[in-house]
Amino acid sequence: MTASTMNGRLWLAASSLALGAALIATPAAAQDATGASTAENAQDAAKPEQDDAIVVTGFRRALENAINKKKYSEQIVESVSAEDIGKLPDASIAESIARLPGLTSQRLSGRSNNISIRGFAPDFSTTLLNGREQTSTGDNRAVEFDQYPSEIINRVDVYKTPMASVIGQGLSGTVDMRTIRPLDTKKRVIAIGARGSYADLGKLNAGSDDKGYRINGLFVDQNDAGTLGVALGASWVDEPYQIEEFNAWGYPNVTNNGPVVIGGSKSYITSTQLTRLGLNGTLQFRPDPRFTSTLDAFYSDFKDDQIKRGIELPLFWSAAQLQPGFTVADGLVTSGRYTGVKGVIRNDAFQRKAKLYSFGWNNRFEGDNGFNLTGDISYSRTKRNELNVETYAGTGRAAAGASDTISFTSGKNGTVFKPTLNYGDFNTILLTSPQGWGGNQTDANGLRIVGSQDGYYNNRIVNDEIWQGRAEAEKEFTDSFLKSVQLGLNYTDRSKSLRPDEYFLGLKANTNGTTSVAVPVDARVGTSDLGFLGLGPLISYDPLKLVNSGIYNLVRNVYPDVVAKNYSISEKVWTPYLQVNIKSMVGASELTGNIGVQANHTDQSSNGTRATLLGFNANGSPNVTSTRNTDGDTYWDVLPSANLSLRMPGDFVVRIGAAREIIRPRLVDLRNSFDYGVSNSDPGDPARFTCPTGRVCRTVTGNLGNPSLRPFRANAVDVTFEKYFGTKGYLALQGFYKDLQSYIYKLDSPYNYTGFTFANPGTDNNNLPIIINPFGRVNQPINGKGGKLYGIEAAGTLPFDTFVSVLQGFGVTGSVSYTKTKVSPAPGAPATDLPGYSRWVANGTAYYENNGFSLRASARHRSSFIGEVTGFGGERFNRRARPETIIDGQVGYDFGQTGTLSGLSLFLQGQNLTNEPFATVNPNADNQVIDYQRYGRRFLAGFNYRF
What we know:
mainly beta, Maltoporin, Chain A, 31-stranded mixed β-sheet, disordered N terminus
C-alpha cells in the first residue's frame, strides 16, 4: 500500500470518527452526506397523506411517493417507490427504472440488468447505494442491477441534473438506490414474501429447470424511546431462464457484387440458473435529537450458472460448398443447400460468480445555530469469477468422419436448417475437433495438444474495490435569500484488476493428431432438442464434469493477446465542493434551488503487460516476452452546476439546470497493456518505408490501452415545465441539450515500432526473405472532440378520479422521449449512433386499484439501438438491434389492514407476454440477421404478508 493510499484511508476514518466527538444544539433540515435530507424524508412520508382525505396504498401510493419526490426535489429527478415496505412494483430493479421517462434497458438472458439514460450507454451513468458509489460486477463502471434484490430497496431516484453536493455523478444521470431508515418508519414492521416463477419455453436443455422461486423477509423495529432502530432484510432467489439463440457469422457475397448468403452459424439453446442471496442491515442510533449515527451493510452472493448446447456450422467460410439452384430475395439467398458441412457440436458451460460487500457509516450533527456537520465513510468490494468452458464434438477430427448435406431457409427470424445427419447419436458424434482448429499447442512444461484443440477453458478473475470518505459543514440562514451554504470534501479510492486464466483443451488420448473419443457414459445427460433451428436432437453432456474428470490436457494459453489482458487500475479522486442553497419569494412564486461547484483532482494509474511472440521453443511452446509497466496521469476538473425551480401558483413548477458534467473513462480503456505482432499480408505505408527489391515486407499492428485518458466531458442545459395535481398526478415536458466537449474514440493511428523485439520472420511461401516494416499501426482509445445530444421528454401520471370521481382507482402513467445524437465514432467520421442510443423511447402503464383489487398492464418500447452483446472470452462488442416492445401485466388482491387475513396480498405477474425477441442485424440490411434470441414468457405468482 502506498503512502498516499494509507493517508487517504486514514482520512476516511478520521472524518467520521472526529465528528462523533461532539454534539451541537437543535435539529435542522439539511442534506446529509448520502444525498437525502431530513426535510425530504419528512416530505416523502407526509405529503401524500396531507393531500388525501383517504390514505391510499399499493401501486397508487408508490406513484404518489414518486411524484412527491419529483415535486419537492431541487434537481430534475425521476423516482420509483416501493408499493409497501419490501415491495417494489416489479420483480427487478432495472425493470422498474426502465419505466421512468427517458430511460430504457437492454435484456440479458431475458432479464433487464442495466440501464441507458437519455440515449447513453450504461457506462455513462453511475449508481449509488444510499448515496455512496458502488463497485460493479461488470468490466467497467456500469452497475448490473440484478446484483441487488428488489425486495430490499425502498426507493430509487434517478437524477438527470448534477448538484455539487452529490458525489459520483454520471454524465447521463445518477441512479441512487435507497434502503429503509428504521427510525423514520416509527413502528415495528415484519414483512415476508414469496413467489414462484415459470418459464414457458420449457426445459430446453437436458437437466435444466423451467420453474423457480424467490423468498424474502424484512424486519424493522425501534426501541420505545425512538433512539435506536434496526432494519434487517434477506432475499433468496433460485430461478431458471431459458433462451433460444440463433447467431450468424456474417453474410459474404456469393460472387463479386452478387447476393449475400449466410456464411456460418453458431446457435444454441441456453439454460441459466440464477441464484442470489441478498442480505441488508441498517442500525440507526439517535441518543439525542441533535445527533444521528447510521450504519449500513449489504451483501450479495450471486451465481449465474449457464449451460449452452448447439451446433456451429461453418458454411460459406469453410470447405462446404453452396450448391446451384438457390433462391434470392432482396439481395439475400433465402433458401439453398450446402454440401460437405463439418458441424462443430458445442456443449459449453458459463459460470459467473460474484460476491459484493458494501458498508457505510454516517454521522450527522445538527445545531440550533444553524451549523451542521456530517461525516461519512464507506467501503464497497466485488469479487467476480467468470468461467467459460467450451468443448467440441463431431463426426471425426479435421478431414476424418462424415460430412453433412444441409438445406437452409433464411428469413426475418434468422436461418432454419434441415440436416441429413443425426446429431443426437452418441455413436456418431464423438469428442474431437471437427474443423481442426487451434493446431499444435505446447506449454512451458512440455504438455502438448496434437493436431488441434478440442475445447477452451477461460477463467476471468476480477476484483473491484472502493473506499470513500466525506466530511461536510453546513451553515443555515433564516430570513435570507440564502437557505444554506454547504462546504465539503470527499475522497474516493478505487482499484480494479483483471487476471485471465486461459487454457487450450486437448484430449489426452489424442497422441497422433487423428484420435476422436466417445463421450464417457457417466458424463452423458441425454439429448437436447434444437427443433427451433430445425437441427433436431443433440448429444448432451456435462462439460465441467468432463473437464474435471481429467480427460483433457490443459495447456496454458500464454500468447500475447491473452497475457496483455492482465491489468490493474487505480483511481484516487479528491473532491472539494461548495454549494449555496436558495429559497426566496418572487412575487407570488417561490424560487428555490442551488448553485455550486465541484473540483475533482484525479490521480489515475494503470499497471499492465507489454507482450510479444518471439517464436517457439524447442518443445514447441510459444516464446513470449512480457514486461509489466505502470503509467498514469493526474488532472483537475472544475464542475459548476446550477438548479433553479420557480414554484408558481396553481401547482406549476418551472425548472432549469445547467452544469459541466463528466464521466471518467471505461476502466478497460485505461489499462496499460500492449500486445503487438507482425501482419501476415500488410506491407505497410510505402511513404514511410520502402521494401527492398527481392524481399517481402510485413508491417506491425498492435492494441494499446491509454492510462492517460481524460474523462468524457459535456456542457449541459435542462429545462422542465411541470404541472402537479397535489401529489396524485402530474404532467411534465422536459428538454435537454448536451454539448460533448470531449469523447473517447478507438482509433487506428501510425506507430513507430523501431527498437521493439520481434521474432525472426523467416521466409514466405515463395522462399523470399521477410523484412519487418517498423512503421506500423496501433489501435488505441484517445480523447477527441465530442458531439451533441439533445432531446425532449413528455411524461405524466393521471389518476382519472382527479377529473371524474366515478373513475376512482383508474389511472395511467407513462412517458415518451425523442433523442437526437450527433457524435462521430472517430475524428472526421460521419456522425453515428451512440451505444445504447434509441431515438424513441416510450413506456406506459394503465392501472386499476380499488377495494383491494389491483390490475395493471405495462408496455415499454424502444426504437432501433446499438446493443452490447457478449463474445468470446466474455468480451463485449456492439451490434445494431431491432426495435422492441415489451408487454407485462399484473393482477392482485390486498386483504387490507382489518380482518383475519389483514396484511396479506396476492398477485400474479406475466412478463414479456408477447414473447418479444432480441434481434440484431447488419447495418442497413434488416434481412441479414446476426442474432435472434427468444426468451419466452415468464409467469410469477406469489404473496406478500406484513405483520
